[in-house]
Amino acid sequence: MADSAPQVTNDAEREPDALEHSEQILTSTGTVQNALFPPQNAAGLLNMFNAFRNGSAHMRWLQYMMATGNPQPVAVPAGESALFPNCINCLSSPATSASQKTSAFPFREQQKYVFKCSFCKETIFNLKPGLYEIRQHVANHHGLFISCIFKKCTIRSQLREFGGHIHKVHGKKTAELKGDEALLYQAKRDVFKYDTNVLLLRYMDMPPNSVRNMDLLPPTEAKRALAQTAL
């Protein structure tokens, strides 16, 4: 007897999981959307992580903003930062003008992110979108650096100075690097950015919109091994 065809049940007809529900969250691009929990894909997982990594503070800001239309974040209370003992807290964002308030969401490109480092108590002002200052600050605390792509050079730099070092010291613009030089340059950048991104997400209360600047895809073992070499 022939096997009967399998029954196909679409999402609308299937029995929902007991834990599934929909919630409004603030995404990494600064918009509010309905999200299915548990998340169904990598993008949903990132949105959930971004919204609930320090959930009470971010959700309280979201509720406040939706109720008042004020796009300013609330400060993270010191007690809640105990969840992340080495975090760097987002303190505030500069006040918006009347014209800026016509936009419902929230961080304009010209605004600053303000962090306070729990390691050294220094306040760091970081302009969007590169996160260079805060990335360099946490890299210094953890001893992260980028070694030069050339063996005879012992200079160790941070991400912002890496391309400038190759241009000024070795006379090569990064856009003109070819072959192995270009591959090694990109591998060193990618590995450094990923390693510092991991530290940022682990030890900081990131302003929600800043996560969009972060590549969370881990480098392959081959790329990580390549980044440890020089020509």
Overall pLDDT score: 62
Output the helix-strand order: EEHHEEEHEEHHH
So what's the overall shape? Answer: globular
Number of helices: 6
Could you describe the largest sheet, including whether it forms a barrel? Answer: 3 strands, antiparallel
Strand order of the largest sheet: 3-4-5
Radius of gyration computed on alpha carbons: 22 Å
How many β-strands, per DSSP? 7
Taking pLDDT < 50 over at least 5 consecutive residues as the criterion, the unreliable ranges are 4-21, 25-30, 52-111
Proportion of beta-strand residues: 5-15%
Estimate the helix proportion, in percent. 25-40%
Structural class: alpha+beta
Ends distance: 67 Å
Number of domains: 1
What does this protein look like?
The protein has helices spanning 42-52, 55-68, 132-142, 159-170, 179-203, 221-227; strands spanning 21-26, 32-37, 88-90, 112-117, 123-127, 146-147, 156-157. By secondary structure, it is α+β, with helices and mostly antiparallel strands. The strands form three sheets. It has a three-stranded antiparallel beta sheet, with helices on one face. The chain is globular, with a radius of gyration of 22 Å.
Short description:
This protein has 6 helices and 7 strands. With 231 residues, the protein is an alpha+beta fold.
